[in-house]
Amino acid sequence: MTRATGFSTLLLATTVIVGASTLPGANAQDEILIYRCVDASGGVTIQNDVPCPAGTQQTVKKIGGVQTMRTPDVIVPPPPKAPPPPPQPQTETPTVAVPPAPPPPPAPPPPLFQCRTWDDRDYLSDTGTPPATCVPVQSRGIDGSLELAAGETCEMRQDACAEVPQALLCVSWKKRVDEADFRWKLAGARDDARKAELERVRATYLGSTCVR
Fold first, then answer.
1. For residue range 21-74, what is the model confidence (pLDDT) as tens digits?
2. For the chain, where are the E strands, in sequence order?
3. How many angstroms separate the CA atoms of 23 and 64, rounded?
4. Looking at CB atoms within 10 Å, which of 103, 133, 185, 187 has the fewest?
């Protein structure tokens, strides 16, 4: 059983508790009922939330509940951002100069043929079978006289050709170029066909092993 001295101590503790309830940030709980009981002999009993027994003088005092401090919010700082990757050096693909294709190696000169016409004129040809030539002939009458001749006629004749030996091939091609140049100049340098022939034989000669 607690006496009056204990009640003073309890009141002091209650005062401290009540004072704590005024602290900022505290959450109020349910009120506490303090029962002061005085019996017939004058004894004092202090009871917490329990009413006094029958036959005693009861005094009830309401005291605010024990305040509890609110736990402050913990601010968690965001994780540090990862530093950006360092800039990568930009490397330019070196421009590789492609060397020009080498010119084709010179080829041996193509074959040439030394030909002779029906009237004993010599010339050089790319082919050993040039087209036949229609040679004019004098026609006669049935009696063999020229008076009864039907008119002019011609006879197809083939030129005789022989291949130029390999040892003389370059010399012959050089002669072929000179002959084509002469025929073109003889025409006054105005004949396109003779000019084209000159350019053809000259390119063949210059692109061969004859000038290397």
1. 333 433 445 678 888 898 888 888 888 878 888 888 888 888 765 555 666 677
2. 26-27, 32-38, 44-48, 57-63, 68-69, 113-116, 122-125, 133-137, 153-157, 160-163
3. 13
4. 103
Q: Which two tokens stand for residue 152?
A: 């002019």
pTM, rounded to two decimals: 0.47
Q: What element of type H or E holds 205? A: helix 192-206
Burial class (CB within 10 angstroms; exposed 0-12, middle 13-18, buried 19+) of 164 = buried
Model confidence pLDDT, tens digit, residues 105-116: 888 999 999 999
Backbone angles phi, psi at 206, to 5 degrees: -70, -30
Q: Phi-psi category of 107—alpha, beta or left, where left has phi over 0 and alpha has psi -120 to 50?
A: beta
How many CB atoms lie under 10 A from the CB of residue 104? 7
Whether the CB-CB separation of 151 and 139 falls below 8 Å is answered with: yes
24/47 Cα distance (integer angstroms): 30
Query: In this structure, what DSSP letter does residue 126 have?
Result: S
Neighbours of 202 (CB within 10 A): 16
Rounded-to-integer distance, Cα 146 and Cα 205, Å: 50
Q: Are β-strands 32-38 and 57-63 bridged in parallel, bridged antiparallel, or unpaired?
A: antiparallel
Parallel, antiparallel or unpaired: strands 44-48 and 122-125: unpaired
